[in-house]
Amino acid sequence: MTLDQTPFRSTRTNAVQTTADPADAAGPQVWEDMTVEVALSVMAAARTGQVVVRDEDGMCTGLVTRDRLTAR
């Protein structure tokens, strides 16, 4: 399997963020304009299967799992 250099985007469009949101939990984070390879590398370094995705303003836009990034 060959991974491409395509930036990933979260499909979450919830404008209201709450502290009870699991995506706001502490842990590894990536930004929407980062590549899939970067997100997978961050997950590997953190020894976790998911990362929080942030937009350019630092707002949480979703939670991405390793399975979702490697699915074809």
Structure description:
With 72 residues, this protein is of the alpha+beta class. It has a domain of 46 residues: CBS-domain (Roll). It contains two helices and three strands. The protein has a three-stranded mixed sheet. Strand 2 and strand 3 form a beta hairpin. About 14% of the residues have low confidence.
In short:
The chain is α+β, with helices and mostly antiparallel strands. Helix content is 22%, strand content 19%.
SSE blueprint and pairings:
Blueprint: E1 29-31, H1 36-46, E2 50-54, E3 60-65, H2 66-70
Parallel strand pairs: 1-2
Antiparallel strand pairs: 2-3
The portion of residues forming beta strands comes to 15-25%
Mean pLDDT: 77
Order of neighbouring strands in the sheet with most strands: 1-2-3
Reading the helices and strands in chain order gives: EHEEH
Main beta-sheet strand count, sense and barrel state: 3 strands, mixed
Class computed from helices, strands and strand pairing = alpha+beta
**CATH uppermost class of the domain at 25-70:** Alpha Beta
Total number of helical segments?
A: 2
Helix percent reads 10-25%
- Tell how many strands the DSSP assignment holds: 3
Considering the chains and any ligands shown, give keywords for the structure.
72 residues; 2 helices; single chain; 3-stranded mixed β-sheet; alpha+beta; CBS-domain; globular
